[in-house]
């Protein structure tokens, strides 16, 4: 087998037959297979099997119940299950024209690039398939921000956000990849240096079905980008900073309503403790939840620690206000900054600690965990 065409799908049943037809026509002369990695909740797997029965190429489907890692996790599963070492990743909605595969195959065969990317923004490429001018603007701004955050590794890449690329799966270091969304190429490029070649392509409109783009995906992308660039500790800091802003805003609002500043500080602390826990669960420690204790145990640990920390911090706020004549807002901000590091270490080593299974010494675990969490992969 020379080539595996990996198609991650989520509810793309109306597009399957046309996609298979066009891929088969495009790769004529190449010993290839089509591998669908499917996370659907509709009839997509059944449709794939039906189409596979009469397809001129081998067509397989892996249906994932867990959907771990989203689209990125599906692509990595495709790399693992592929029959060929050379893999091309293509969307299932036909916005990536399969007719571009032979050009990518030929360019990859030159041998001077580890990844061949189909780019909307290289010479001759277009993004006509984006729904409207707003989507075009968002795409270009997101691309510019991403390139600015990874100026070295993305120097020669015009479209790091594309999902259409060809790679030798043997060059992928699965150990350092932590897919958390739909921008798997960005994840791959950000983890280590690759030599890259690009071919332009016209980003088409969807063949059928509805776009998966949403505000939720935008939030996931921002979380993914922050974690890739700065690491887990900085993502924790971003959420902590949002919580701090909310905390200060609540204190200000309540004191403006003539609520005693101590009660205002307590209410603000409890509100942001809960909010921060929910955001940290979703965006910071999501990859550690599987081996950690149950969610209510995690919440109890986090809530108890943060309240204990607040019991120490709030009297300090009071001391600064009463004795130091410092504004309550400024005093709250100062103490929150110092609380950040203590909170991160506690959550990394205690709240999300793996359940005991004959592990190494606790001292060794502490050193390894701190090193792993603070130095979570990113471009340094």
**At the third CATH level, what is the topology name of the largest domain?**
Spore Coat Polysaccharide Biosynthesis Protein SpsA, Chain A
Strand order of the largest sheet: 3-2-1-4-6-5-7
What count of structural domains? 2
Average pLDDT reading: 81
Count of helix runs:
12
- Oligomer type: single chain
Q: How would a textbook summarize the main sheet?
A: 7 strands, mixed
Q: Per CATH, which architecture of the largest domain? A: Alpha-Beta Complex
Instruction: Using the CA coordinates, give the radius of gyration.
Output: 24 Å
What structural category characterises the helix and strand content? Answer: alpha/beta
Q: In percent, how much strand structure appears in the residues? A: 5-15%
By DSSP, the count of extended strands is 7
The 3D shape can be described as: elongated
Under CATH, the homologous superfamily of the largest domain reads Spore Coat Polysaccharide Biosynthesis Protein SpsA, Chain A
**Helical amount among residues, as a percent range?**
40-55%
pLDDT < 50 runs, ≥5 residues: 374-380
- String of helices and strands: EHEHEHEHEHEHEHHHHHH
CATH class of the largest domain: Alpha Beta
């Amino acid at each position: 087998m020379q080539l595996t065409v990996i198609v991650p799908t989520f509810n793309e049943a109306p597009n399957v037959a046309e996609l298979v037809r066009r891929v088969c026509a495009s790769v004529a002369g190449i010993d290839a297979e089509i591998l669908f990695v499917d996370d659907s909740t509709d009839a997509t797997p059944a449709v794939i099997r039906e189409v596979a029965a009469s397809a001129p190429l081998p067509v397989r489907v892996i249906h994932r119940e867990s959907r771990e890692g989203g689209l990125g996790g599906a692509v990595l599963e495709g790399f693992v299950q592929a029959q060929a070492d050379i893999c091309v990743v293509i969307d299932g909605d036909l916005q990536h024209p399969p007719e571009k595969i032979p050009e990518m195959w030929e360019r990859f065969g030159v041998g001077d690039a580890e990844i061949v990317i189909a780019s909307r923004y290289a010479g001759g490429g277009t993004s006509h398939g984006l729904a409207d001018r707003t989507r075009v603007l968002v795409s270009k701004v997101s691309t510019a921000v991403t390139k600015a955050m990874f100026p070295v590794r993305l120097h020669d890449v015009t479209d790091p956000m594309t999902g259409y690329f060809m790679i030798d799966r043997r060059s992928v270091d699965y150990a350092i990849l932590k897919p958390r969304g739909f921008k798997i190429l960005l994840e791959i490029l950000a983890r280590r240096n690759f030599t890259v070649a690009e071919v332009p392509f016209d980003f088409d409109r969807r063949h059928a079905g509805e776009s998966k783009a949403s505000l939720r995906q935008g939030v996931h992308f921002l979380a993914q980008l922050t974690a890739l660039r700065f690491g887990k500790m900085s993502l924790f800091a971003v959420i902590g900073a949002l919580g701090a802003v909310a905390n200060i805003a609540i204190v200000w609002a309540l004191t403006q309503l003539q609520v005693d500043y101590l009660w205002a500080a307590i209410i603000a602390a409890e509100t942001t403790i809960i909010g921060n826990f929910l955001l940290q669960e979703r965006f910071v420690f999501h990859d550690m939840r599987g081996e950690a204790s149950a969610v209510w145990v995690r919440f109890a640990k986090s809530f108890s620690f943060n309240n204990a920390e607040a019991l120490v911090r709030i009297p300090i706020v009071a001391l600064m206000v009463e004795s130091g004549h410092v504004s309550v807002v400024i005093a709250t901000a100062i103490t929150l900054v110092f609380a950040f590091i203590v909170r991160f270490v506690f959550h990394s080593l205690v709240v999300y600690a793996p359940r005991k299974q004959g592990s190494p010494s606790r001292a060794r675990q502490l050193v390894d965990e701190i090193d792993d969490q603070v130095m979570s992969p990113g471009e340094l």
